[in-house]
Design brief:
With 202 residues, the chain is an alpha/beta fold. The chain has helices at 2-11, 41-59, 74-81, 133-144; strands at residues 27-30, 33-39, 64-70, 89-94, 98-99, 102-103, 121-129, 149-157, 170-174, 180-181, 197-200. Helix 2 (41-59) packs across helix 3 (74-81). The longest helix has 19 residues, at 41-59. The radius of gyration is 18 Å and the shape is globular. Residues 1-23 have low confidence and may be disordered. Bound molecules: xanthosine-5'-monophosphate and magnesium ion. Xanthosine-5'-monophosphate binds next to strand 7, helix 4 and strand 10. Magnesium ion is lined by residues 72, 98, 186.
C-alpha cells in the first residue's frame, strides 16, 4: 500500500488512474522525467552502517563536528549521525550551486556557520560529490577557519566527473556520471523524500 501511495504521488499529474503503463513499480516520474531505482533503501542503510563503524573506529576520542551540507545531505547526515557512538556535535551549512540536471558550475555563498570550527576535527557530510567544486569551496573555508583535521563523508561519488585532488575519506557508493535523485537529492526541488536513490532514464 505504501508503494502504491508513493507511485500515485509522483505520477498523479501524468497517469491518474492507469498504473498498467508502469509495470515496473521501481520507477518514478518526477515532473517531466522518469527515473529507475538504482540503490535500494536497504543497500543505502547497510552502507551507512558500515561507514559509521569506520568513523566510530577512526575518530572516537577526538573533538568532532559533523558538518552537513544542506539541502541534499540532510537524510544522510541524520542516518549517519544517529549511528555515531561517541560524543560529537553536528551543524549544517547551506549553499546553492546547482539547478536542473547539470551542474551550473556557479558556487554561491556559504551560509549558516554557527559552530566553532577552530582546532576541531570536521567531518563534511555531503550527499554527492560530482565535479568537486562545492567540496573544494567548503574545504577552503574550513582551512581559513583553522579546522585541525578535515574528513569527507560522501554518500555518493561520481569519479568520472571529479576534477579535484581532495581525498574522500568515507564514500557510500561510487556511481556513474548520471543524474540521480532520492534520499535527499532532488530534481527541481522534488524527490528528496524518496528512500531509495533513482537514476534518470534517458
Ligand atoms: P559538485 O559538481 O560541486 O556538485 O561536486 C555537488 C552538488 O551538486 C548537486 N548534484 C546533484 N544533485 N543529482 C542531484 O540531485 C545529481 O546527480 C547531482 N550531482 C550533483 C548536489 O547538490 C551536490 O551537493
Ligand atoms: Mg540539488
Amino acid at each position: 500500500m505504501l508503494i502504491r501511495t508513493k507511485i500515485r504521488y509522483y505520477f498523479h499529474i501524468f497517469a491518474p488512474a492507469n498504473f498498467s503503463n508502469f509495470s515496473l513499480m521501481n520507477e518514478v516520474r518526477i515532473l517531466d522525467k522518469n527515473f529507475s531505482e538504482f540503490l535500494t533503501e536497504k543497500e543505502i542503510q547497510k552502507r551507512i552502517e558500515e561507514l559509521a563503524v569506520e568513523i566510530n573506529r577512526d575518530l572516537a576520542g577526538k573533538e568532532v563536528v559533523f558538518l552537513g551540507i544542506l539541502n541534499g545531505a540532510f537524510l544522510f547526515a541524520a542516518d549517519l549521525f544517529r549511528r555515531i557512538d561517541f560524543p560529537a556535535r553536528i551543524s549544517f551549512i547551506k549553499l546553492a550551486s546547482y539547478q536542473g540536471t547539470s551542474s551550473s558550475g556557479l558556487i554561491k555563498e556559504l551560509i549558516g556557520w554557527n559552530e566553532d570550527i577552530k582546532n576541531k576535527t570536521i567531518v563534511v557530510v555531503e550527499d554527492i560529490v560530482d565535479t568537486g567544486n562545492t567540496l573544494e569551496r567548503i574545504v577552503d573555508e574550513l582551512v581559513i577557519r583553522k579546522a585541525s583535521d578535515i574528513k569527507i563523508a560522501a554518500m555518493l561519488y561520481k569519479p568520472a566527473a571529479y576534477t579535484k585532488k581532495i581525498p574522500l575519506d568515507y564514500i557510500g557508493f561510487e556511481i556513474p556520471n548520471d543524474f540521480v535523485v532520492g534520499y535527499g537529492l532532488d530534481y527541481d526541488g522534488f524527490g528528496r523524500n524518496l528512500t531509495s536513490v533513482y537514476t534518470l532514464i534517458k
